[in-house]
Hints:
The complex is a heterodimer of chains A (279) and B (171).
Chain A: H1 2-10, H2 12-31, H3 33-61, H4 63-86, E1 93-94, E2 104-113, E3 122-125, E4 138-140, E5 146-153, E6 158-162, E7 170-174, E8 180-184, E9 194-201, E10 211-214, E11 225-235, E12 240-247, E13 256-262, H5 265-274
Antiparallel strand pairs in A: 1-2, 2-3, 2-13, 3-6, 4-5, 4-13, 5-6, 7-8, 7-10, 8-9, 9-12, 10-11, 11-12
Helix pairs in contact in A: 2-3
Chain B: H1 2-22, H2 39-43, H3 51-69, H4 74-93, H5 106-109, H6 111-134, H7 140-164
Amino acid sequence: MRNLWIFISRYNAFFLFIIFFIVGIYLTVKNNAYQRSVTLNSSNEVIGTAYDRLNIFKRYLNLGMVNDSLAAENAKLKSQLLGLTTVDTAKDVKVVDTITNQQYTYLAAKVIKNSITLRNNIMTINKGTVDGIKSGMAVIAPQRGVVGFIRDVSAHLATIQSLLHKDTKISVTLKKNNALGSLVWGDGNFDIKKAFVKEVPNHIKMYVGDSVITSGYGSFPAGILVGRISKANVATNDNFLSAELNLFTDFSTLQYVYVVKDKKADEQKALESIAKPNE
Amino acid sequence: MNSRIIIVNVIRWFLLLFVQIFLLKNMGFYDLSTPFIYVLFLLLLPFGIPNILLYLLAFITGLTLDAFYDTMGVHATACVVLAFVRISFIAISLNRDAIDDPEPSLSYMGFQWFSLYAFLCVIAHHLVLFFLETFRLTEIGYTLMRCGLSCIFTLLLILLVEFIFYRRTPR
């Protein structure tokens, strides 16, 4: 013990140095944010690396279990895929007609080319003769509103002569009183949200806010909402009134449309062609 | 005599720390060379001082600097290292019994001994100081360059001060 004290007192400079040095380092690390963060970081790094190594081993041990679960999931997905390939949900949505036999079926189609900026606008959809589309069929918008008529058809594609075209005329009625008129677009107003109802008889009273629906004379089924009148009783030179209406169809954001298939269209056409004029 | 040494050292302490904190703290060449003249106080403490007192003085001086530099502990540690180097160097280079000079200054010890003494103490102090401040080895080149340039600056200042207060004493 005495020798130890002699030893310590002889080299007291060194031992005192160790003590003070440790105190100094302790103060440095404890009180300075930067040094503290560095020491913590490096220790965290060491621990993090160790955990990372451990994880690699764990992954190897679990490979068998992971394989089994993946195989099971694969089988499940495959059976689901088989189910999906036989049924195409995008084809021929049936609409039940309770009065007569079902007359109209609707076929959803995706718009693959749209056009709204021209005077005569033509769209393209991704369904064609393979899906039973023929020229002249009516096309309506998903929620409400009309779009136009099928114009040309190829095997898998078809073009639509949209309402925004000078040759498009759709027979409409006022929902309130069934007064007939025809819907046209672009007569002095090329706003894609507005169209005109023309050839409304003079004695019909129209008001702003009246709903306009399709009449059912032609390829469109009756009762499809077209728009709402925004400017009523516009006088024209002839014996008819006209009105401006806001369309329900938003042509600028049209993604999907329904092509209306009329089962009795051919029959009707054949029948009507029998009646000769001037007979 | 004894009280005179104490008074001289107290005045020196205040003066050097004042210069260090209010003048040299704002000086530096491109953030590379910053002088630390206050170590001269520790260099010039008398020979007869007990080790424990020397360490305590070094530690307190360092802490005072830390308080002004906002680097708690860095200067204190560096000063403790300087004290250790000082004790070791004096023990090696001088015969303890034959020391009759009051303090290890340029006036008493001569240019050669004093410059080596100052160089070793300052470089130890600066190495610890800059490495503790940087606290990483990735910038070792930059740290060593700062350390070396600061060493040169500090040594120049110390020798300048020593020559200014040079007293020709009969040896």
